Amino acid sequence: MTLPPLTAPAPAVPAAESREARPPAGPLMRAVDLAVADLRRGGTVAILGADGRSILALAAEAATPETLARLAALAGASPEVVLSARRALVLGLGPEARGALIATPAGALSADTVVALTDPAHDARPAPGAFAVRPAAPAGCEDAAVALAKLARLLPAAVCAALPAVPASGLAAWAAGRRLLSVGAAEVLAYPWAAAASLRPVAEASVPLAGAPDTRIVAFRPADGGIEHLAIIVGRPSSDRPVLARLHSECFTGDILGSLRCDCGDQLRGAIEAMAREGSGVLVYLAQEGRGIGLVNKLRAYTLQDRGLDTLDANEQLGFEADERLYLQAAEILRQLGFRRVRLLTNNPDKVAALGQCGIEVVERVPHAFPANGHNERYLSTKARRFGHIF
Question: Which CATH number does the domain housing residue 153 bear?
Answer without folding.
Answer: 3.90.870.10
